[in-house]
Write a structure and sequence with these properties.
The complex is a heterodimer.
Chain A (H helix, E strand, L loop, with lengths): L1 H11 L5 H7 L1 H19 L10 E2 L5 H4 L1 E2 L3 H7 L2 H21 L1 H12 L3 H12 L6 H12 L5 H10 L13 H29 L3 H9 L4 H12 L1 H13 L6 H7 L5 H4 L2 H11 L3 H28 L7
Antiparallel strand pairs in A: 1-2
Helix pairs in contact in A: 5-18, 6-11, 6-17, 7-11, 8-11, 9-15, 12-13, 14-18, 17-18
Chain B lengths: L1 H25 L9 H5 L13 E9 L12 H14 L1 E9 L3 H10 L8 E4 L2 H9 L8 H7 L1 H7 L7 E2 L2 E2 L1 E5 L6 E6 H6 L12 E3 H14 L7 E3 L18 E2 H7 L10 H16 L13 H9 L2 E7 L5 H9 L5 E3 L2 E3 L18 E7 L6 H13 L1 H6 L6 E6 L2 E6 L11 H8 L11 H12 L5 H12 L16 H23 L2 H36 L11 E2 L1 H8 L16 H11 L1
Parallel strand pairs in B: 1-2, 8-13, 9-11, 10-17
Antiparallel strand pairs in B: 3-14, 4-5, 6-14, 7-11, 7-12, 15-16
Classes of the chains: A mainly alpha, B alpha/beta.
């Protein structure tokens, strides 16, 4: 799509230079300058700080005063058992997040699309969006109140219903396997509503003629979903999937920090919390920078690979 | 395609520009050159006026207290400017330092432009101060200059001289620490009585054996005088500072004192720590603490529970506006409190076994002068002014924020409750401004000081808590000893401290919660992991530093009461005189080898 439009532009005005466009569309360039400045200042300039990963960095002495140590920091990082635990947890939790969290907004969007009663659809949508606006600190506080083994309402109800209060307590958030499931489910609950927006927009873009044609061919609801809606939003799904794969190495610090406790650290220590603990806790900025850099590079590789795979399968990509 | 090129050109250009700026920012970080001669030729420091205005940049803790004026811009910062700054033609600028994450903030400031750096850096934690010193943040203090520009302050801190040197260089300006009596541990007296036990009128006389005390806790848990959610004892996730004094030898050998007594990291493999863990495991298994105690990472749940009237025992710093006590009285107006009983610890003959406890450091805040500061004399003048004006800075304006009150033995200032005018003091009576020179109020005698503390710290009707606490502490205070302080930085503490704290909290959760029969096996397993994760390296480094200090005669002389030399300890306890501590098998582990390497560099 992109290449087509730019080709069209080029063929229309092949000889005009940048100055011409700048003069003609200067308002647009001013507008784009703002997000561009944001990217430069907050995303690109900080990349210079990556130098810390190759130094015995001491903030008091600064960049010029700290000694260059080459790849020693990475050697230390790769020989630390903690790093591998954090890496394993990050990958496992994120893979399950992807498996459970990724299809939910799609299913939900398709379901919402099938609702014909407008006010009910709007109400549902609004309610579904709400959790997105709650911070993880709040969600975790509520979760701990609800699911606490001895005083949480959920366990009290389970205890009363099963008739053996006390012994039937389920340690939702205080036993690592239970915790891992809750960790995933809470995120699904929080983000699925918000995630539907982009798919709903994509569904709106599907040509109505297709549905009419399907009707004529005798397709039912399932048939229309399967043969029209889902293929219609397939490019969107692929793009979202590529982006989600890029986040496979990332982790939401706030979510883990707020939900974790010392009984579940076996599973809850992820790269983000490791970087925070080592970097800010022990003031070892070089280690946390190195881990961050590693995380970023792996993320980039994942995005490029999935992009390639999607192109190989004949779909559009990102790059 | 063209657009793309242009964008990438812009991005590349800005990256280059930024790196140029970055490099420029790194330049000129050489230590300040101080013209000592010119400074020492100033005749009358008290009335000296700088011919050209200088700026003094002083950090101040921001504790994020609601309802307070900004810490860097309020009546009292203006007062300092007017009374001190204007007189000397000094602009005093305050820099807010968040109390949580202060090291990060100081590091950020020091990594930034020299002209925006604070003139002093400070911390309450001695090892952290040494870390600052070792990373080159401080300049050497010229003692003659200090004496000349801050004579009164110098006089007040001269007993602390031994703590101000790092590797033979004087770098610290200490604050004094008068003894405070407001950390208290209280129990709900009304509950204890409801459960059928008697409590004497004054807790000074309340002495119980461990079993008797445990029995009270168990009865409270069983009878639930505070409703179905009653918890007998406030208990939360331990931090690195894990007290084990009750199980240490008394007196302790200097070796053990040096290696295991500090607060920076839990001494897990040391026997007294094991005994304390066993006791805590017992507490959890007795069911006298909350089932979810480990979810309380900072003691806030325990505080809420006590305030809500569902928790029996609580330890905290009493303050005049104590939120705990006012909330408790609102929830349960009939609640009464007593200090927790003294636990008796008799030997076979019925004599009390003395157990020392941790004494506070003899100093308060430790400050050092920024290596880039070109006017150390102005810092000394500031400290001198602060010291000379403590009465005003701690109490405000007479007749407005405080009145002088006649008490036994003299006169002390007493703050007027609830004053809300302009001149009101900042949080905790301006403490974060005057903490550079002292931690508390000192009116020259114990008698006056304790009365001042009652007025300062006790909410109306609870004065007895401070008075009784003082009565109980004063005769036993000399048994307490301070932490051992190394004269150099123990680098492995900084390297492994956070990892070990993380380990320790996870291990403590498991070890306190497990069945008593499982404890020993878990303890053995965790000790090995803990040592491998860095504690062995810390012990090795400390052991070497201790041996070096001992060989060079740099151990404190005399040793504090409660600490004896290794030779005396060997004679007293047999063997090497130390309490056992598990070590990794085989000397020179990987971690310690790495450390030795980095030390050699």
């Amino acid at each position: 799509m992109k290449t087509q439009t730019s080709k069209a532009d080029l063929s229309a005005k092949p000889k005009n230079g940048f100055g011409f466009y700048l003069k003609r569309d200067w308002e647009l360039y001013v507008l784009i300058a703002i997000p561009l400045a944001f990217i430069v200042i907050f995303k690109l300039l900080p990349l210079l700080g990556l130098a810390i990963a190759f130094m015995d960095y001491n903030p008091i002495l600064g960049f010029s005063g700290s000694t260059f140590v080459g790849l020693n920091v990475f050697k230390e990082m790769f020989s630390s058992a903690e790093f591998y635990t954090a890496l394993r947890n990050t990958l496992v939790l994120n893979i399950f997040d992807l498996i459970c969290g990724f299809p939910m907004p799609i299913i939900l969007a398709v379901m919402l699309n099938e609702i014909t009663c407008t006010w009910y659809k709007k109400l549902t949508q609004t309610l579904l969006y709400l959790p997105h606006f709650l911070s993880w600190v709040i969600i975790s506080a509520i979760a701990y109140q609800l699911f606490s083994p001895s005083t949480g309402i959920v366990n009290i109800i389970i205890g009363t219903l099963s008739g053996k209060d006390g012994s039937a307590m389920i340690p939702f958030l205080t036993e690592k396997w239970h915790w891992a499931v809750m960790y995933i489910l809470l995120a699904v609950w929080q983000s699925m509503g918000w995630g539907t927006i982009i798919y709903l927009a994509a569904i709106t873009g599907i040509n109505n003629d297709l549905y009419e044609a399907a009707d004529i061919d005798g397709a039912g609801r399932w048939g229309k979903i399967w043969h029209v809606t889902l293929p219609g939003i397939k490019p969107t799904i692929i793009v979202m999937l590529i982006m989600a794969l890029g986040r496979l190495m990332g982790s939401n610090f706030e979510r883990v920090q707020a939900l974790s406790n010392t009984n579940v650290t076996d599973f809850s220590e992820v790269i983000a919390t490791y970087v925070y603990r080592v970097g800010l806790g022990s003031n070892r900025f070089n280690i946390s920078t190195a881990v961050g850099l590693f995380q970023g590079i792996v993320g980039l590789i994942l995005v490029l690979l999935s992009d390639k795979a999607s192109k190989a399968m004949g779909e559009g990509g990102l790059v | 395609m063209k657009m793309r090129n242009i964008i990438s050109l812009i991005l590349a250009g800005s990256a280059i520009a930024a790196s140029a700026v970055g490099i420029a920012g790194c330049a000129n970080r050489a230590p300040a050159v101080i013209d000592t001669e010119a400074i020492m030729s100033i005749d009358d420091p008290e009335n000296y006026v700088y011919p050209e205005q200088i700026t003094l940049r002083i950090p101040v803790y921001d504790r994020g207290q609601t309802g307070q004026a900004p810490v860097t811009d309020n009546y009292w910062t203006h007062y300092v400017q007017k009374e001190f700054g204007d007189k000397h033609n000094i602009k005093v600028e305050y820099i807010a330092i968040p109390r949580q994450g202060e090291v990060t903030k100081f590091n950020q400031l020091m990594a930034g432009k020299v002209s925006r750096q604070p003139d002093i850096l400070f911390h309450y934690d001695y090892p952290q101060c040494i870390t600052y010193a070792k990373s080159g943040a401080f300049q050497e203090i010229d003692e003659e200059m200090l004496k000349k520009f801050a004579p009164d302050y110098y006089e007040s801190t001269k007993d602390l001289g031994e703590y101000t040197y790092v590797n033979g260089e004087k770098v610290f300006l200490p604050g004094t620490r008068p003894r405070a009596y407001n950390f208290i541990s209280v129990i709900r007296k009304d509950w204890v009585e409801q459960c059928g036990f008697s409590v004497p009128d004054s807790s000074v006389d309340w002495q119980l054996s461990q079993e008797e005390y445990d029995n009270i806790l168990k009865t409270i848990s069983a009878k639930k005088p505070g409703g179905p959610n009653t918890i007998a004892l406030g208990f939360s996730l331990p931090n690195a500072n894990f007290g084990n004094h009750g199980y240490r030898n008394y007196p302790i050998s200097a070796h053990d004192w040096a290696l295991y007594a500090d607060l920076s990291v839990c001494s897990l493999p040391w026997e007294p720590t094991y005994e304390q863990i066993k006791y805590n495991n017992n507490l959890v298994n007795m069911g006298v603490v909350s089932n979810e105690w480990y979810l309380d990472k900072d003691g806030s749940t325990a505080r809420e529970n006590f305030s809500a009237g569902i928790q029996g025992v609580h330890g905290f710093y009493l303050t005049k506006e104590s939120a705990e006590i006012s909330a408790l009285l609102q929830n349960q107006p009939n609640a009464t409190l007593s200090l927790t009983p003294t636990i008796l610890n008799p030997d076979e003959n019925g004599n009390q076994i003395i157990k020392g406890s941790r004494a506070d450091n003899p100093f308060g805040l430790m400050s050092g002068i920024n290596v880039h500061c070109t006017h150390p004399e102005a810092v000394y003048m500031y400290f001198e002014w602060m010291y000379d004006n403590l009465l005003t800075m701690q109490n405000g304006i007479e007749g407005v924020t405080y009145n002088m009150q006649q008490v036994e033995g003299g006169e002390i200032p007493v703050l007027i409750d609830g004053y809300t005018g302009d001149e009101r003091l900042n949080y905790n009576a301006n403490k974060d401004m005057w903490c550079v020179v002292t931690e508390g109020r000192d009116y020259g005698s114990d008698q006056l000081n304790i009365q001042a503390q009652v007025y300062t710290y006790a909410p109306a009707g609870f004065e007895y808590l401070i008075e009784e606490n003082y009565e109980r502490i004063k005769d036993n205070d000399h048994y307490n000893y301070i932490d051992f302080l190394f004269d150099r930085s123990i680098d492995s503490l900084t390297t492994y401290g956070a990892t070990l704290l993380n380990d320790w909290q996870i291990m403590a959760t498991d070890m306190f919660n497990c069945a008593p029969a499982e404890l020993d096996a878990k303890y053995q397993k965790y000790c090995q992991q803990y040592l491998k994760d860095g504690y062995q390296a810390i012990l090795d480094e400390k052991e070497a530093a201790y041996a070096d200090m001992k060989a060079n005669g740099n151990l404190p002389d005399p040793l504090p009461e409660g600490v004896i030399s290794d030779e005396e300890a060997a004679a007293e306890y047999g063997g090497d005189g130390n309490q056992p501590c598990i070590r990794l098998e085989g000397a020179g582990t990987e971690a310690s080898a790495q450390d030795a390497e980095s030390a050699a560099e």
